[in-house]
Amino acid sequence: MPHRFSVALALVLGAGAFSSLMPAVAETVEDERQEIVLTAEERAFVLKEMRGFLNSVEGVISAVANDKAADAEAAAKASGMSVMHEVPQSLRKKLPMAFMKMGHMTHQNFDKLAQEAASLGDKAEILKQLDTILNTCNTCHAQFRLSQSREQ
Ligand code: HEC
Q: Fewer CB within 10 A of the end CB, N or C, for the chain?
Protein backbone atom coordinates (compact mmCIF):
# COMPACT_ATOMS: atom_id res chain seq x y z
CA MET A 1 0.00 0.00 0.00
CA PRO A 2 2.65 2.60 0.90
CA HIS A 3 4.42 1.56 -2.29
CA ARG A 4 1.33 2.12 -4.43
CA PHE A 5 0.84 5.48 -2.75
CA SER A 6 4.34 6.65 -3.63
CA VAL A 7 3.87 5.58 -7.25
CA ALA A 8 0.69 7.67 -7.43
CA LEU A 9 2.50 10.58 -5.82
CA ALA A 10 5.36 10.29 -8.29
CA LEU A 11 2.86 10.38 -11.15
CA VAL A 12 1.19 13.50 -9.76
CA LEU A 13 4.51 15.23 -9.19
CA GLY A 14 5.65 14.18 -12.65
CA ALA A 15 2.54 15.66 -14.22
CA GLY A 16 3.10 18.87 -12.27
CA ALA A 17 6.67 19.21 -13.48
CA PHE A 18 5.56 18.55 -17.04
CA SER A 19 2.86 21.21 -17.04
CA SER A 20 5.23 23.79 -15.59
CA LEU A 21 7.46 23.21 -18.61
CA MET A 22 4.59 24.05 -20.93
CA PRO A 23 3.29 27.51 -19.99
CA ALA A 24 2.12 28.12 -23.57
CA VAL A 25 -0.73 25.64 -23.12
CA ALA A 26 -2.62 28.12 -20.95
CA GLU A 27 -2.78 30.62 -23.80
CA THR A 28 -4.49 28.21 -26.14
CA VAL A 29 -7.29 27.45 -23.68
CA GLU A 30 -10.63 28.57 -25.05
CA ASP A 31 -11.92 31.78 -23.39
CA GLU A 32 -15.52 32.46 -24.25
CA ARG A 33 -15.70 35.83 -22.53
CA GLN A 34 -16.11 38.93 -24.67
CA GLU A 35 -12.88 40.87 -25.00
CA ILE A 36 -12.80 44.60 -24.28
CA VAL A 37 -9.66 46.21 -25.69
CA LEU A 38 -8.36 49.15 -23.65
CA THR A 39 -5.17 51.18 -23.36
CA ALA A 40 -2.86 50.31 -20.47
CA GLU A 41 -4.11 53.34 -18.58
CA GLU A 42 -7.81 52.56 -19.09
CA ARG A 43 -7.33 48.93 -18.11
CA ALA A 44 -5.47 49.98 -14.96
CA PHE A 45 -8.37 52.34 -14.14
CA VAL A 46 -10.97 49.56 -14.42
CA LEU A 47 -8.89 47.07 -12.43
CA LYS A 48 -8.31 49.63 -9.68
CA GLU A 49 -12.05 50.16 -9.46
CA MET A 50 -12.47 46.37 -9.22
CA ARG A 51 -10.07 46.17 -6.31
CA GLY A 52 -12.10 48.94 -4.72
CA PHE A 53 -15.21 46.77 -5.14
CA LEU A 54 -13.52 43.86 -3.39
CA ASN A 55 -12.39 46.17 -0.58
CA SER A 56 -15.98 47.29 -0.11
CA VAL A 57 -17.20 43.69 0.01
CA GLU A 58 -14.62 42.93 2.70
CA GLY A 59 -15.57 46.05 4.66
CA VAL A 60 -19.27 45.18 4.60
CA ILE A 61 -18.72 41.56 5.68
CA SER A 62 -16.30 42.62 8.39
CA ALA A 63 -18.82 45.15 9.75
CA VAL A 64 -21.61 42.56 9.87
CA ALA A 65 -19.38 39.82 11.32
CA ASN A 66 -18.25 42.15 14.10
CA ASP A 67 -21.80 43.22 14.88
CA LYS A 68 -21.11 46.80 13.79
CA ALA A 69 -23.57 47.03 10.92
CA ALA A 70 -23.36 50.85 10.85
CA ASP A 71 -19.69 50.58 9.81
CA ALA A 72 -20.83 48.97 6.57
CA GLU A 73 -21.99 52.42 5.41
CA ALA A 74 -18.52 53.84 4.78
CA ALA A 75 -17.27 50.62 3.18
CA ALA A 76 -20.21 50.50 0.77
CA LYS A 77 -20.14 54.23 0.00
CA ALA A 78 -16.53 53.90 -1.18
CA SER A 79 -17.94 52.01 -4.20
CA GLY A 80 -21.07 54.12 -4.63
CA MET A 81 -22.21 56.27 -7.56
CA SER A 82 -19.83 59.11 -6.68
CA VAL A 83 -16.94 56.95 -7.92
CA MET A 84 -18.51 56.84 -11.39
CA HIS A 85 -17.84 60.53 -12.02
CA GLU A 86 -14.14 59.71 -12.22
CA VAL A 87 -14.58 57.40 -15.23
CA PRO A 88 -12.65 58.97 -18.16
CA GLN A 89 -14.73 59.87 -21.24
CA SER A 90 -12.54 57.79 -23.58
CA LEU A 91 -13.23 54.72 -21.48
CA ARG A 92 -17.00 55.21 -21.44
CA LYS A 93 -17.02 55.07 -25.24
CA LYS A 94 -15.21 51.73 -25.33
CA LEU A 95 -17.30 49.89 -22.76
CA PRO A 96 -20.20 47.83 -24.16
CA MET A 97 -23.70 48.82 -23.01
CA ALA A 98 -24.19 45.62 -20.97
CA PHE A 99 -20.90 46.30 -19.16
CA MET A 100 -21.88 49.90 -18.41
CA LYS A 101 -25.27 48.80 -17.12
CA MET A 102 -23.87 46.20 -14.74
CA GLY A 103 -21.20 48.60 -13.52
CA HIS A 104 -23.82 51.27 -12.93
CA MET A 105 -26.07 48.80 -11.10
CA THR A 106 -23.22 47.73 -8.82
CA HIS A 107 -22.44 51.33 -7.81
CA GLN A 108 -26.14 52.04 -7.23
CA ASN A 109 -26.59 48.92 -5.13
CA PHE A 110 -23.60 49.82 -2.96
CA ASP A 111 -25.26 53.19 -2.28
CA LYS A 112 -28.49 51.38 -1.40
CA LEU A 113 -26.61 49.10 0.98
CA ALA A 114 -24.92 52.14 2.57
CA GLN A 115 -28.38 53.63 3.20
CA GLU A 116 -29.62 50.43 4.83
CA ALA A 117 -26.49 50.28 7.02
CA ALA A 118 -26.97 53.89 8.11
CA SER A 119 -30.69 53.55 8.84
CA LEU A 120 -32.04 50.22 10.10
CA GLY A 121 -28.71 48.41 9.90
CA ASP A 122 -30.45 45.05 9.67
CA LYS A 123 -27.68 42.48 9.23
CA ALA A 124 -29.78 39.96 7.30
CA GLU A 125 -30.94 42.68 4.91
CA ILE A 126 -27.36 43.93 4.43
CA LEU A 127 -26.20 40.40 3.56
CA LYS A 128 -29.12 39.94 1.20
CA GLN A 129 -28.19 43.12 -0.63
CA LEU A 130 -24.55 42.05 -0.71
CA ASP A 131 -25.64 38.76 -2.26
CA THR A 132 -27.44 40.68 -5.03
CA ILE A 133 -24.30 42.78 -5.62
CA LEU A 134 -22.04 39.70 -5.78
CA ASN A 135 -24.41 38.13 -8.26
CA THR A 136 -23.77 41.05 -10.62
CA CYS A 137 -19.98 40.78 -10.07
CA ASN A 138 -20.16 37.14 -11.14
CA THR A 139 -22.44 37.78 -14.11
CA CYS A 140 -20.11 40.43 -15.49
CA HIS A 141 -16.96 38.40 -14.81
CA ALA A 142 -18.46 35.48 -16.71
CA GLN A 143 -19.21 37.70 -19.70
CA PHE A 144 -16.24 40.04 -20.17
CA ARG A 145 -12.48 40.19 -20.04
CA LEU A 146 -10.06 43.05 -20.61
CA SER A 147 -7.06 43.14 -22.89
CA GLN A 148 -4.52 45.80 -23.68
CA SER A 149 -4.22 47.48 -27.04
CA ARG A 150 -0.78 47.87 -28.64
CA GLU A 151 -0.98 51.68 -28.62
CA GLN A 152 0.88 52.91 -25.49
C1 HEC B 1 -19.40 45.58 -15.37
C2 HEC B 1 -18.65 44.37 -15.25
C3 HEC B 1 -18.05 44.01 -13.92
C4 HEC B 1 -18.64 44.11 -12.69
C5 HEC B 1 -20.05 44.53 -12.33
C6 HEC B 1 -17.64 43.68 -11.75
N7 HEC B 1 -16.49 43.34 -12.38
FE8 HEC B 1 -14.74 42.82 -11.52
N9 HEC B 1 -13.83 42.67 -13.32
C10 HEC B 1 -14.47 42.84 -14.53
C11 HEC B 1 -13.55 42.54 -15.62
C12 HEC B 1 -13.87 42.59 -17.10
C13 HEC B 1 -12.33 42.20 -15.01
C14 HEC B 1 -11.04 41.79 -15.73
C15 HEC B 1 -11.13 40.30 -16.00
C16 HEC B 1 -10.11 39.81 -17.01
O17 HEC B 1 -9.63 40.60 -17.85
O18 HEC B 1 -9.82 38.60 -16.99
C19 HEC B 1 -12.53 42.30 -13.56
C20 HEC B 1 -11.56 42.07 -12.61
C21 HEC B 1 -11.76 42.09 -11.25
C22 HEC B 1 -10.74 41.88 -10.25
C23 HEC B 1 -9.26 41.71 -10.51
C24 HEC B 1 -8.58 43.07 -10.31
C25 HEC B 1 -7.10 43.10 -10.68
O26 HEC B 1 -6.39 44.00 -10.18
O27 HEC B 1 -6.64 42.26 -11.47
C28 HEC B 1 -11.37 41.91 -9.03
C29 HEC B 1 -10.72 41.74 -7.66
C30 HEC B 1 -12.78 42.16 -9.27
N31 HEC B 1 -12.98 42.27 -10.63
C32 HEC B 1 -13.73 42.25 -8.27
C33 HEC B 1 -15.07 42.57 -8.49
C34 HEC B 1 -16.09 42.60 -7.45
C35 HEC B 1 -15.86 42.26 -6.00
C36 HEC B 1 -17.24 43.00 -8.06
C37 HEC B 1 -18.59 43.24 -7.47
C38 HEC B 1 -18.72 43.97 -6.24
C39 HEC B 1 -16.93 43.20 -9.47
N40 HEC B 1 -15.61 42.92 -9.69
C41 HEC B 1 -17.86 43.62 -10.40
C42 HEC B 1 -15.77 43.26 -14.72
C43 HEC B 1 -16.69 43.51 -13.72
A: N
Which tens digit of pLDDT belongs to each residue from 112-137?
999 999 999 999 999 999 999 999 99
Instruction: Write down the domain spans for the chain.
Output: 32-148
User: pTM of the full predicted structure?
Assistant: 0.84
Calpha distance 126→64 (Å, rounded): 8
Q: What is the 3-state secondary structure (H, E, C) of 66-108?
A: CCCHHHHHHHHHCCCHHHHHHCCHHHHHHCCHHHHHHHHHHHH
Shortest-distance atom of ligand 1 to CA 147:
17
Q: Which residues line ligand 1 (CB under 6 A)?
A: 47, 50-51, 53-54, 57, 99, 102-103, 106, 133, 136-137, 140-141, 144-146
**Residues 6 or more apart whose Cβ sits within 8 Å of residue 100:** 92
User: How far away, in angstroms, is 97 Cα from ligand 1 center?
Assistant: 16
